[in-house]
Amino acid sequence: MGKKIRILGLHGYGTSGAIFSSQTSSFRRYLEQQYDQIGDGDTFDFDFANGFLDSSPAAGIELFYNPPYYSWWPADPSLEDMAKARERLKIYLKQNGPFDGVIMFSQGCTLGSSLLLEHYKDTPQDPPPFKFAIFICGGPSLKQLESEFGFTINSELWEVDAASRRALARRADTAAILAQGSDRWSNDVNDITDYSVKELVDMVKGPYQIKIPTVHVVGRKDPRNLAGHQLHAISHPDIARIFEHEGGHDIPRNEATSTTIARLVRWVSSSITAEKAKQIRGI
Question: What is the CATH number of the domain that holds 59?
Answer without folding.
Answer: 3.40.50.1820
